């Protein structure tokens, strides 16, 4: 096994095609086919499921891809360290929508200004999607709802969010879930940690939400609440940043449910210079017992 084989393997995994991968790594297809077969023989497993003209990663291939990406990333980092260059290359960051909108814009602007050689890419989505991206190697790091206890991840708490029940204007105070039993709620998809938190809050009080309407943005949720169509759970920092927040009532959850920590996570052992540079620009992380 050598670095060239790993680069070829990554190219095939990304494109699903020997021809496209060969063009990407500037090799002839026959050479690529031979080297991939040699890599599989060396490992003793099939890395791809071959379907007509397409190659799809096998379960072993998916596992190997994560290590291959980490190895190549470490090699690139070692080259930069030896060369004494400033951080450069691609840095793909994931974030919850609220974090991207409220917490990190100034940090991102500072990062882009200080490290112009870094190609920065930002993706937003629910925690589940962001975690999948980190574990798959598509994201270098991501902001997610924590704490995180996954053997393949490392991370640190960085922000504390106060979670607010948002109701139509004129709604009486909400102190517990039974007071809004059966109300329709607006939330992100099922892999959103905030949605799961909202549902657990209901169930802990032996209450149930009504219809759960899945939305793509907090702005959509707020618009539906303003219209009187239901309620939502939104971080205070996000709520107060949105036009229209004065047109609703908002109530903090009870203390045991009120606070959620946002963590920055990355693959275990995959700390890069780009990530180190980004962490240095963040505000001091939360203590683990903050609150």
TrEMBL record:
Transcription in keyword set: yes
Keywords associated with the record: DNA-binding, Transcription, Transcription regulation
InterPro entries the record matches: LysR_HTH_N (IPR000847), LysR_subst-bd (IPR005119), WH-like_DNA-bd_sf (IPR036388), WH_DNA-bd_sf (IPR036390)
Domain HTH lysR-type: 1-58
GO molecular function: DNA-binding transcription factor activity; transcription cis-regulatory region binding
Keyword Lipid metabolism recorded: no
UniProt-listed NCBIfam families: PutUtilRegPtrR
UniProt similarity note: Belongs to the LysR transcriptional regulatory family.
Stated name of the protein: LysR family transcriptional regulator
Organism expressing this protein natively: Citrobacter amalonaticus
Organism ancestry: Bacteria, Pseudomonadati, Pseudomonadota, Gammaproteobacteria, Enterobacterales
């Amino acid at each position: 096994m050598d670095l060239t084989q790993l680069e070829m393997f990554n190219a095939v995994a990304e494109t699903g095609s020997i021809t496209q991968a060969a063009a990407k790594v500037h090799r002839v297809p026959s050479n690529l086919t031979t080297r991939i077969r040699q890599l599989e023989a060396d490992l003793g497993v099939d890395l791809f499921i071959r379907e007509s003209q397409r190659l799809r990663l096998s379960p072993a291939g998916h596992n190997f891809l994560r290590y291959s990406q980490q190895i190549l990333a470490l090699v690139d980092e070692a080259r930069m360290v030896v060369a004494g260059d400033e951080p450069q290359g691609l840095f793909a960051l994931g974030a919850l929508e609220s974090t991207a909108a409220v917490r990190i814009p100034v940090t991102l602007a500072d990062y882009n200004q200080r490290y112009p050689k870094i190609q920065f890419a930002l993706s937003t989505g629910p925690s589940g999607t962001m975690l999948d991206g980190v574990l798959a190697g598509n994201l270098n790091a991501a902001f997610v709802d924590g704490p995180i206890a996954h053997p393949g991840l490392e991370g640190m708490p960085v922000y504390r969010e106060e979670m607010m029940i948002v109701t139509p204007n004129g709604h009486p105070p909400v102190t517990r879930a039974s007071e809004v039993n059966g109300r329709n709620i607006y939330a992100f998809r099922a892999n959103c940690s905030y949605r799961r938190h909202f549902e657990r809050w209901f169930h802990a009080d032996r209450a149930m939400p009504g219809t759960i309407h899945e939305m793509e943005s907090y702005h959509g949720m707020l618009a539906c609440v303003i219209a009187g169509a239901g309620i939502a759970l939104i971080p205070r920092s996000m709520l107060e940043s949105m036009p229209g927040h004065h047109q609703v009532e908002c109530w903090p959850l009870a203390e045991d449910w009120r606070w959620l920590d946002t963590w920055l996570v990355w693959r275990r052992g995959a700390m890069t210079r780009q990530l180190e540079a980004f962490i240095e620009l963040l505000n001091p992380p939360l203590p683990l017992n903050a609150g």
